[in-house]
TrEMBL record:
The keyword Isomerase applies. One of its GO terms (molecular function) is peptidyl-prolyl cis-trans isomerase activity. This is peptidylprolyl isomerase. InterPro entries: Cyclophilin-like_dom_sf, Cyclophilin-type_PPIase_dom, CYP38_PsbQ-like, E_coli_cyclophilin_A-like, PsbQ-like_dom_sf. It comes from the Eukaryota. One of its GO terms (biological process) is photosystem II stabilization. It holds the Pfam family Pro_isomerase. Its EC number is 5.2.1.8. Keywords: Isomerase, Rotamase, Thylakoid.
Length: 413
C-alpha cells in the first residue's frame, strides 16, 4: 500500500497494491453493495468497510448506494484511541507501579460516560488507587529514573501527589465538569515521570541512516493555522503536535529538521477531504524538499516499529513482510495521527509531504485498518486536533515551531 505525493488540488491520496489492482478494488466495492443488505453477515460488512476505505484512499470512491447502518464487530481488545495515551504507552519503559497509576487514571474517561453523579464513585476509587500506589511504591518508581532525569522525575512525583490530592477534593465536591481537566493534568505528570525513566536511546539507528537528521527522543511543536472559512467565520487555530523519536527517529527527525528550517511556515493546506489533511508540497516542479547541499530531493526511508520488536523495521512495509496483522507501536488509532506521504510504489520516497488522519471509524477502524504498517507514523496532534475538521484547501500554516525537545534533534544545521 502506498500514499502518493500529490499535486495541489488532486483528490487522490494514493493507491493500494499495483495499478492493475485499482479496478479490482473498485469492483469489490461495487459488488459488496449489491444484493440484500439485510442478509450480510458481520464479516461481509467488514469486507465492505475495507473495500470502501480502499476506494477512498484510491480516490475512486463515490457513493454506490445508501449504505446500511454499521454493525458492531467484536475485536480482540479495546484499542487506545487517545493520542496522549498512545504516546505514553509507546515509551520504552517497564515500571509496573507507574503503569498501574496510568491505567487507573486513564480509566476515568470510561467512568465519565456513566450519566449523572453515579460516575463519581468509580472516579473516586481510581484516584484513591493511584494515591495508594504512589505512596506505597514510590521507591520502586524512583529507582527506575535515569540518573540525568532524576530531578525532573522527582519534581513530577511531587506535582502528581498534589494533583491527586486536589483531584480527591474535586470528587468530594461532586464537581464532575472539573474531573476531565484534573485527569489530563495528572496524566501529564504521569507521562513526565515515565519519560524520566527512559535511559539513553533504546536502539541503534542503522548506519546507512545514521547521518540523517534524527530525533533521539520526543519533541513538542506548536502549529498555527489560519482558516479562511469555518462555520463560525475566519479563525486561527493553534495545535500541539508531539513527535516520537523513540519509535521513529528517522521519520520524526526529518520532519523536525524541516520545522527547524521553517519549511512549512506560510505553506498552504493542499488537501482536505474529510479523510486526511495534507501539506508539504513545495512550490515548483519538485515534490519534496530539495537539499541545498546536493540540489536533489532528500528522501526519508520507510520506518515502522512493531509492538514487541526491539527496533523499527526500515525500507519494507508490514505488508511486504507478511506481518499485516501485527500492530505498530504508533498506530493510526487517533484523530490527528501524523504520517509521511510517499510515491505509490516506492517505500522510501517520502520527503516533505505529510498528512494528518481525520479518523473515520468506518473507513479506518481502530486496531484493524488499511493504514497501519503501510504508512510511516511519527507523531500525533495532542491538543486542538478537532480543528482539523475545519481545515480547507488554501488555508495557511502560519508557522510550526518547537516548544521543547529541540535538543533531541541531531545532524541538523
Amino acid at each position: 500500500m502506498a500514499l502518493a505525493n500529490l499535486s495541489r488540488g488532486q483528490a487522490s491520496v494514493g493507491a493500494i497494491g499495483t495499478r492493475k489492482a485499482v479496478p479490482a478494488v473498485r469492483r469489490v466495492a461495487c459488488q459488496a453493495y449489491k444484493g440484500d443488505e439485510e442478509a450480510r453477515n458481520p464479516l461481509q460488512k467488514a469486507a465492505i468497510g475495507l473495500a470502501t476505505a480502499a476506494a477512498v484512499v484510491l480516490g475512486t470512491f463515490a457513493p454506490l448506494v445508501t449504505p446500511a447502518p454499521a454493525d458492531a464487530i467484536l475485536v480482540a481488545s479495546d484499542p487506545v484511541k487517545n493520542a496522549a495515551a498512545i504516546l505514553r504507552n509507546a515509551l520504552p519503559i517497564d515500571n509496573k507501579p507507574i503503569r498501574q497509576i496510568q491505567k487507573d487514571l486513564e480509566g476515568i474517561s470510561e467512568a465519565l460516560r456513566i450519566p449523572g453523579s453515579k460516575s463519581l464513585g468509580p472516579v473516586a476509587r481510581a484516584v484513591r488507587a493511584s494515591q495508594d500506589v504512589l505512596t506505597r511504591q514510590k521507591d520502586a518508581i524512583i529507582k527506575d529514573f535515569a540518573p540525568e532525569k532524576k530531578a525532573f522525575g522527582l519534581a513530577n512525583i511531587d506535582k502528581l501527589t498534589e494533583a491527586l490530592t486536589e483531584f480527591q477534593a474535586i470528587v468530594e465536591a461532586k464537581d464532575k465538569q472539573a474531573v476531565p481537566l484534573k485527569q489530563r493534568e495528572a496524566l501529564s505528570y504521569v507521562g513526565n515521570i515515565e519519560e524520566a525513566m527512559v535511559k539513553g536511546f533504546p536502539f541503534q539507528v542503522p548506519k546507512e541512516y545514521a547521518d540523517r537528521p534524527l530525533l533521539l527522543g520526543r519533541a513538542t511543536l506548536e502549529m498555527k493555522v489560519k482558516c479562511a472559512q469555518t462555520p463560525e467565520g475566519p479563525q486561527t487555530f493553534t495545535q500541539t503536535v508531539v513527535l516520537d523519536g523513540y519509535n521513529a527517529p528517522v521519520s520524526a527527525g526529518q520532519f523536525a529538521d524541516l520545522v527547524a528550517r521553517g519549511f512549512y511556515d506560510g505553506m498552504e493546506v493542499q488537501r482536505a477531504d474529510g479523510f486526511v489533511v495534507q501539506t508539504g508540497d513545495p512550490d515548483g516542479p519538485a515534490d519534496g524538499y530539495v537539499d541545498p547541499k546536493t540540489n536533489e530531493i532528500r528522501r526519508v526511508p520507510f520506518e515502522v516499529r512493531v509492538q514487541g520488536d526491539k527496533e523499527p523495521i526500515y525500507d519494507f512495509t508490514l505488508e511486504d513482510l507478511g506481518r499485516v496483522n501485527e500492530q505498530p507501536v504508533l498506530p493510526f488509532n487517533a484523530y490527528g495521527t501524523l504520517a509521511w506521504a510517499r510515491n505509490e510504489f516506492e517505500n522510501n520516497s517520502a520527503s516533505s509531504q505529510v498528512f494528518f488522519l481525520l479518523k473515520e471509524s468506518e473507513l479506518t477502524p481502530t486496531g484493524s485498518n488499511l493504514l497501519d504498517g503501510r504508512f510511516a507514523v511519527f507523531g500525533y496532534i495532542t491538543q486542538g486536533q478537532d480543528a482539523l475538521a475545519d481545515f480547507r484547501v488554501g488555508d495557511k500554516i502560519e508557522y510550526i515551531k518547537f516548544v521543547d525537545g529541540k535538543e533531541n534533534l541531531k545532524n541538523s544545521p
